[in-house]
Amino acid sequence: MPTVLVVDDEPAIRRALHRLLAVKGYDVLEAGSAAEGVAAVLKGGVDAVLCDVTMPGGSGFKFYDQVVSQVPELARRVVFLTADAKEPEVQQACELRSAPLLSKLFELELAIDAIRVALILK
Predict the structure, then answer these.
(1) CB 3 within 8 Å of CB 46
(2) Which helix (H) or strand (E) holds 23?
């Protein structure tokens, strides 16, 4: 069973994604900050990540760069989430990292589909 890490500073979003992913058969880990997310990845066993872009104490892009420098196989298995998905600088940062981007106004099923694609790229 694949393990998905949800990195988001908003507890309600983490809980909603956790419930949805668990119902779909994924093991789910949660992190409330980029630093917690990096620590979780470095413990091992993370197969894919849903990561907020904007968090206090470190952006999702900083998280991505730190993780990928140490666990390069996750490079194509991080999906970003943000309320600012239409901002050009956010889109460019995702394109630079070849990472999918979902608006936080997404339907939860889109998150599941994004994780499935990320795992196929594994």
Answers:
(1) yes
(2) helix 11-23
How buried is 11 (Cβ within 10 angstroms: 0-12 exposed, 13-18 middle, 19+ buried)? exposed
Comparing C-alpha atoms, which of 49, 45, 42, 36 is closest to residue 69?
42
Q: Taking the model in full, what pTM does it have? A: 0.85
Of 115 and 55, more confident = 55
DSSP state, 71?
Answer: -
Work out the pLDDT band at 26, boundaries 50, 70, 90: very high
Given a contact cutoff of 8 angstroms between Cβ atoms, the answer to whether 91 and 83 are in contact is no
Calpha distance 44→47 (Å, rounded): 9
